[in-house]
Design a protein that fits this description.
There is one protein chain. By secondary structure, the chain is mostly helical. It has one domain: Glycosyltransferase. It is built from 17 helices and 4 strands. The strands form 2 sheets. It has a two-stranded antiparallel sheet. A two-stranded antiparallel ribbon has the order 3-4. The N terminus and C terminus are likely disordered. GO terms for molecular function: metal ion binding. Keywords: Membrane, Metal-binding, Signal, Transmembrane, Transmembrane helix. It comes from Streptomyces roseochromogenus subsp. oscitans DS 12.976. It holds the Pfam family SQHop_cyclase_C.
Amino acid sequence: MNVRRSAAVLAAVGVLAAAAPATAAGPSPSPKAALPSGLYGTSDPAYDGVWRQSLTLIAQRTLGYRPAAQAVDWLAGQQCASGAFAAFRADPAKACDSKVMVDTNNTAAAVQALQATGGHHDAVGKAVTWLKSVQNKDGGWGYSPGGASDTNSTSVVVGTLAAVGTDPADVRKASKSPYDLLAAMAIPCDQDGGGALAFQPDKKGKLAANADATAAGVLGALGKGFVAEAGKAPAQEACAKAGHPTPAQVADNAGAYLAAAVAKTGHLQSALPGAEDQPDYGNTADTVVALAADGRAEQAKKAYGWLEKNAGKWAAQSGPAAYAQLILAAHAVGAQPGDFGGTSLVRSLNALGPLPQMAATGYQQETKSDGGSGFGVWWFVGVCLVAGIGVGFLLSGRKKRQP
């Protein structure tokens, strides 16, 4: 998942173009349509404006930064009166109508970002109420309201519920919780792809392993959002059979699948049409977070090491969401995003929009340094600030995959 919801977008929109922001910088905006000053990135925001903004703000808060007010205000201003968010609204002053395609993924991501930045209690509450109102009877969520549930959408909503202090197990429809949906998407250990999660069953009800959905599902089953730290070691290294697996067993089995998937090369392969034998940088970054959260530190660090050597150009081409993903991967394994293969992910991300601030003069000192090595101090300070004042939305404990 470059943006953890690419599979959901493909399923909902039905066109490969909808996933363009997940795999490349995307088409340039029309010369007549200037980008909003508070928005991060320079590519057309039509498909990923809210998503990339949300991940950016989350990454900044995780590092201890205070995002620029205009960046937060832009995100909050994208909300519809119903509480939902669409991928992008060019004219947020205009009321949302039936033509505005709101969805669960952008809504959930925006909630996590606004919760992390603080000061938007009403907006967060309305969005969570809307998310609960579109829960499906199987306990999960689809990308679009009323759409068939999928692992990715369900997982990002789970992370949002946890971020606002709601136990996902208590959010039910027809007696089903989101954990029931995730368990239903888990492939039994004795089947092909055992341990992995499917994005959705096919028309015959068969489940097929999907690395993107599996990475998302690990965090969903663990009740985590985009920000995750190293978890305790799994009960078993390999996939363990269970009639109706608990959320922890779903996560551990999925973690075993991901660990095996990156064991040889350190990365996942792209599943996009026409991308044979190409690395999947975004899903690999999500896999790092998932493996770390599931307590598989060694495998997570190996995959992160591969990213550090190979993902710099991808991030530069892809923009804010990619930089944010790599920062969150660094956070998960305790690495320094200020020195990512000789490049500062932090400076690179912050340069794409309004400059955030850190307590005292931390940000100014970091940006004035010539190299990435000096950022280690501020990375440490940022983490301490986050831990000390309780900001960030899921420091106590999930990221979009192609079917």
